[in-house]
Amino acid sequence: MAQDATVPKLNFEYWLDKAIEWGQATTLESQKDVCLHLPQLQEFLHQLYETIKHSGSTVAIQQFPLIGQLLGRLCWNPFVIGYDESQKTLMWCLCCLYSSEPQNSVELKANSWIRSLLCHLLSSSKWESNEAETGAFISALGYTSADYYCHLVKNMVVSLVTELRENQFNGLNIQGSISASHVNAVSIFCVPLITLPDLTPLLETLLLYHGGSSKEILSSEFLEAVNEAFLKKKISLSQSAVFSLWLRHLPSLEKATLHLLDQLFSIQLNSLEEVACVMKDSLLPQASCHPAIFRIVNEIFKNALMETDGTSGVTTIIQVFTQLFLQAHQNENKQHKFPLKAYFPYHHQPLVRGLVRRPFELPPTYWSQHLKHISDMLKALVEDGNVSSLTDLFEIWVLVACFGEWLDIAAEQLLKAAVEPDAVLWLLAFYYCPKNENQQRTQTMVEAQAVYSHLMMLFSCTDLSLKDLEPVVHRITGIEQCWNQCLTTHLLTNFLLFSPGGHKIAQQCIYHITKTTDTSKEVYNLLIRTAYRFNHSGEENQRIVKLLNELLQQRTLKV
């Protein structure tokens, strides 16, 4: 059919011949040909409507004597009426042929025929007879909503679904009466009809169909079109169908992940509950229970971290995603649950197990001990020569970043509980400064210890002023190294939240440091993470919750 690629835009005879050749598209060859010509046909129908819309029915029929035969045939071709705006254009072409004042029996008969076609088009689509554009015309005809529904597409779907399911795996024996080429053809035919609600059972059956071939049997155009429609919420699919789509078509999974990140970056999110809601709606955390999907999504997140230099916004998004993935993994049926090593195959497994344990799974009195255990394992990996390259170091840092909930717990426990400060401070120092070139991490550790010592001297004070915190604030405003600035900001913000006197000067202090430094996003993300944890941990502290809400309204944080 390649020679037909450049037909004239208004070659009426060409399209009439095509319509006669296609019929109702009941053969494999005719269906393929229809799908290949749909964009050109839609362009022709637009041109035809522009040509006849002001001419009146008599002039239109004089200009195109066989226009009724062409439109009538196209209206009964399910592939044509299911494609984009072709159905709408066919309706307006038919309206142009309707005689408002029929003069003879021929025009009366033509009007009756047009009414029946309009009824068919309206009853087999998402359009309703009360739609503004078509309702007035139908009412003028004295016609009511259709009393019947065209079963052509529905019957075709039922037939194909039954055929595919009967030929699906039966134990280890495959019933091989359907060829891979036939299934591929069916997937191609679905492309222009994907958004039709009646087609959903067939879409899902195709996505879940595996005919025993080592190669993908569904067309890439079909897989891309289904993914696009799903991401734009034009269709609704079962979770199993969506997961199967992403497992069998890597570009669709990559596009879905990037689409999620674009969503989260493009909207103003006021809480991590909103972030979690958008993520769950995407189905990606649930789909990531399959290790192959998890590793691809995780790789894309790692690239996002690299491109943004690990900004707090990106790490916060990844931390929430990881928490939702762990929830989904825990809810998996034990018989189908993959071991953790399947998701983190190249990492030190004791460290993985330590990070994976959620804080709420342990008594708060055990948190300090667990943090020391994590810190000791991490320090042994990083400083005892087991890390041979910056790439290995980055992989370890990403793992820690994914489970950043423990980092927030660490900064909090430093102030609230009896901990071994050096171990916990080292954990935070590693997160904010993973590389130790030119003793960077060592210097960060020294800075953190000084800040921690000063804050602990003030922790029990109930009457504090901003002047009391000047040495710490100066370390934030006067530090050029962003890692030291971020770590000090983390410690100070927790001090303001959890110390008896900190809440009195919290707004003033945070306003000062976010106005004079580039730390507003760091503070904002820390606050919404803390609020999210308090909302889901069962911890009751009305003072802290109230303070968090007040701080999140801070003008300097709205950037």
From TrEMBL:
- In terms of superkingdom, the source organism counts as Eukaryota
Q: Which InterPro entries match?
A: FANCC
Q: Where is the signal peptide?
A: none
Q: Name one GO biological process term.
A: interstrand cross-link repair
Which Pfam families does this one have? Fanconi_C (PF02106)
Q: Name one GO cellular component term.
A: Fanconi anaemia nuclear complex
Please give the name of this protein.
Answer: FANCC protein
